[in-house]
Amino acid sequence: MGRKKREFQSSELLNSFAKIYGFEDKLKAFEIKDFLQNYLSDALFSEIETVNLKEKVLVLRIKSPLLKNDFRMRKSFFLKKFQEVLKDESLINDLLIL
After folding, report:
1. Reduced to 3 states, what is the DSSP secondary structure of residue 2?
2. Could you name the domain of life of the organism this protein comes from (predicted)?
3. Could you tell me the maximum CA-CA distance found in the chain, to the nearest angstrom?
4. Is the pTM of this model over 0.85?
5. Complete domains list, the chain, with CATH
């Protein structure tokens, strides 16, 4: 009798490795960065330096003072939007704009 091969999608495999090696937060940050790239124009997206998720706090480092202020004023909107993108509200509790 031949053994059955288990087929994985690349995303499932990547998520498994992320769990094992403890970089799940970085994968979630990449998902948010991809969302921002699609949501914002290229000029605005280029103002975002880093996107990190640490201890359920999403940290956005933004160069432009105007974009930074816009994110701060619409913090609750973006927080809710990012929770929708990740399909899990418990992954992000706060948004920090630097």
Report:
1. coil
2. Bacteria
3. 66
4. no
5. 24-97 (3.30.300)
